C-alpha cells in the first residue's frame, strides 16, 4: 500500500487529502513507476474545483510526473526496473507515491535532466515545443507575440523563440513579471494593464504586425491578437485563462489572409513516434539551458492543498513540485 492524494469531491484546496492508495500491478502494455516528483498545473486546479470534470471521483489527480520504473507488464519492451522516466497523461494519477501508466506514454529521462526538472517542465516544455515547431514553425527573423510571457509556458516559449532567432514581444501583468520576461530574453515587454498592446505591437513593428501571436489568455486578448497579425500571420490560441473565446466570423481572417490554430499537446502526443521526437527535442533543450524554469517550491505530497493555494495566488514566477 502506498499514499496518494485522493479527490472525493470538487471544491477548494482543502478537499485534497492524503490517503492510503494501491495503484495495482501493471497489466499488459503498462508500467508501474515509483513517483519521485509530480508537477502541479492549473489543469489540476480546474479538476479540483470542478471546472473540468474529467477525473472520475474518487480519483487521484495529477497529469505530469517523473520517477523510476518498479515493474513492467506483459509485452512491454525496452523498459526495466530502475529506468528513469517522465510522463504526461490524461489518465491522471500523478499525485501519488506510485502510479501505473501505459508504456506508450513513458518518456526516457537522460542523465542531464533531474526528476524535479522533468516534473516542472515536461508538460509546459512539450507545449512550448509544439508551439514553436508545429503550430507555427518559428524561424529566425520572424516576430512573435507571446501573451503571459512570465507564465509557466510563457517563460519557456520566450526562451525557445529567442534561441530560434525570433524577435519576441511579451505581454505581462506587472512590473515584476516584466523583469521575469526580460530575463528570459524578451526583446520588448508590454504591460497590458497599463498599455494598449495592439498599439504597442504596431509601434514596435513599424505597423507591420507579428508573424505569430501565441495566446493562452483567450477571451480578453483574442480580438487584439487578431489585430496584431501581419499579412499571412497566424494566431495560435492554446488556452483561455480569462475565459472562453466568442465564436469567430471566419471572414475576419480574409483581409490579411491570416490563419487560426487551436492546438492540444495531447493530440500531438497521441502518436508514440511524435511524442518520442518531441521529448527528445525538449530534453535536449533542457540540457542546453534553453528550456528552463525556476522551481519556486518543492512540497511533500501531503501539502498538495498548499501547492494549489500557491498556484492560485498567481504570485509565483516559477513552478511548484510535489515530492512524494
Automatic annotation (TrEMBL):
Instruction: List GO molecular-function terms, semicolon-separated.
Output: mRNA 3'-UTR AU-rich region binding; NADPH binding; quinone reductase (NADPH) activity
- Gene3D superfamilies registered for this protein in UniProt: Medium-chain alcohol dehydrogenases, catalytic domain, NAD(P)-binding Rossmann-like Domain
Q: Which residues form the Enoyl reductase (ER) domain?
A: 11-322
Superkingdom classification of source: Bacteria
Q: Which SMART domains match?
A: PKS_ER
What is a single cellular component term in the Gene Ontology annotation?
A: cytosol
Alphabetical UniProt keywords? NADP, Oxidoreductase
**A Pfam family of this chain:** ADH_zinc_N
User: What is the designated name of this protein?
Assistant: NADPH2:quinone reductase
- Tell me what organism the protein belongs to: Albimonas pacifica
Amino acid at each position: 500500500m502506498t499514499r496518494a492524494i485522493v479527490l472525493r469531491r470538487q471544491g477548494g484546496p482543502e478537499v485534497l487529502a492524503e490517503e492510503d492508495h494501491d495503484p495495482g500491478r501493471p497489466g499488459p502494455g503498462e508500467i508501474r513507476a515509483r513517483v519521485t516528483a509530480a508537477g502541479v498545473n492549473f489543469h489540476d486546479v480546474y479538476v479540483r474545483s470542478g471546472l473540468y470534470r474529467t477525473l472520475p471521483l474518487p480519483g487521484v489527480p495529477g497529469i505530469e510526473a517523473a520517477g523510476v520504473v518498479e515493474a513492467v507488464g506483459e509485452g512491454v519492451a525496452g523498459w526495466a526496473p530502475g529506468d528513469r522516466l517522465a510522463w504526461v497523461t490524461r489518465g491522471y494519477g500523478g499525485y501519488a507515491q506510485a502510479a501505473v501508466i501505459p508504456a506508450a506514454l513513458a518518456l526516457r529521462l537522460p542523465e542531464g535532466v533531474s526528476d524535479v526538472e522533468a516534473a516542472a517542465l515536461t508538460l509546459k516544455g512539450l507545449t512550448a515545443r509544439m508551439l514553436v515547431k508545429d503550430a507555427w514553425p518559428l524561424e529566425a527573423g520572424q516576430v512573435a507575440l507571446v501573451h503571459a510571457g512570465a507564465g509557466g509556458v510563457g517563460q519557456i516559449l520566450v526562451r525557445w523563440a529567442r534561441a530560434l532567432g525570433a524577435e519576441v514581444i511579451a505581454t505581462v501583468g506587472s512590473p515584476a513579471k516584466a523583469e521575469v520576461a526580460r530575463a528570459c530574453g524578451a526583446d520588448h515587454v508590454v504591460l497590458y494593464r497599463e498599455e494598449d498592446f495592439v498599439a504597442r505591437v504596431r509601434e514596435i513593428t513599424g505597423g507591420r504586425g507579428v508573424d505569430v501571436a501565441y495566446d493562452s489568455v483567450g477571451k480578453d486578448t483574442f480580438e487584439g491578437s487578431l489585430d496584431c497579425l501581419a499579412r499571412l500571420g497566424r494566431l495560435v490560441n492554446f488556452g483561455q485563462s480569462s475565459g472562453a473565446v466568442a465564436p469567430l466570423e471566419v471572414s475576419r481572417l480574409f483581409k490579411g489572409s491570416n490563419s487560426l490554430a487551436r492546438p492540444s499537446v495531447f493530440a500531438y502526443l497521441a502518436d508514440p513516434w511524435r511524442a518520442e521526437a518531441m521529448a527528445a527535442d525538449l530534453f535536449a533543450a533542457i540540457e542546453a539551458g534553453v528550456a528552463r524554469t525556476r522551481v519556486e517550491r518543492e512540497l511533500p505530497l501531503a501539502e498538495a492543498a498548499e501547492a494549489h493555494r500557491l498556484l492560485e495566488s498567481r504570485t509565483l514566477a516559477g513552478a511548484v513540485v510535489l515530492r512524494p
